[in-house]
Amino acid sequence: MTVAKTGAEHVASLRDGRTVYIDGALVEDVTTHPAFRNAVQSAALLYDFQARPENIELMTFMPEGSNRRVNRAWQMPKNYEEMVVRRKALQAWAKVHYGFMGRSPDHVASALIGQRMGIEVFRKHGPQRAKALEDYVDYATKSDLFLTYVIINPQA
Questions:
Q1: pLDDT value, residue 71
Q2: Could you tell me if residue 65 is left (phi over 0), alpha (psi between -120 and 50 degrees) or otherwise beta?
Q3: What is the band of 101 on the pLDDT scale with cuts at 50, 70, 90?
Q4: Residue 114: CB partners within 8 Å, gap ≥ 6?
Q5: CA dist., res. 30 & res. 98, Å (int)
Q6: Reduced DSSP (H G I as helix, E B as strand, rest coil) percent helix, strand, coil of the chain, to 5
Q7: Largest separation between any pair of C-alpha atoms in the chain
Q8: In 22-118, which ranges are continuous DSSP H helix?
Q9: Is 46 a residue whose pLDDT tops 60?
Q10: Which residues contact 91 (CB under 8 A, 6 or more apart)?
Q11: Of 106, 133, 103, which Cα lies nearest the Cα of 118?
Q12: Are 105 and 64 in contact (CB under 8 A)?
């Protein structure tokens, strides 16, 4: 296992038996299908960038209770200095994709981290809801997941 998630690991994680259809046809492998392969490779480049030895400190941190570094998008800054370092990491990733990746891995990670930092809002609606969010964010963080969503038909 590497110090931080690499592009090859990201690509391998997408070969997990998921079921994806496009135009009514089953996609056997999203990593090689023409509709997805370039986006998959673009994301892999970001993970390779973070895993380079010269970028490890800038791009990653060690979450509490983890044995592996993850992207700073998953970091909950505790002070001004940590916020600045986190911002610099996200800017470095944006420079890699020149701002052309609409929902890069830091997008939803940042949204979830913001929700996790405001956990008291969830606690007001029940401890189980708060615990579910805490557990999922912990899992996503330690796994350095690339989470996203679509709001339009991706074929459009």
A1: 97
A2: left
A3: confident
A4: none
A5: 24
A6: 55, 5, 40
A7: 49
A8: 37-51, 56-59, 80-97, 105-117
A9: yes
A10: none
A11: 133
A12: no
Please state, in angstroms and rounded to a whole number, the distance separating the CA atoms of residues 144 and 4. Answer: 9
Task: Tell me how far apart the alpha carbons of residues 144 and 125 are, in angstroms, rounded to a whole number.
Answer: 28
What would the pLDDT profile of 55-92 be if each residue is shown by its tens digit? 999 999 999 989 999 999 999 999 999 999 999 999 99
Please tell us whether the domain made up of 7-143 is placed in CATH 1.10.3140.10. yes
Matching residue, tokens 């708060």: 130
Report the pLDDT value the prediction gives residue 1, as an integer from 0 to 100: 67
Q: Where are the domains of the chain?
A: 7-143
Query: Which H or E run includes 61?
Result: strand 60-61
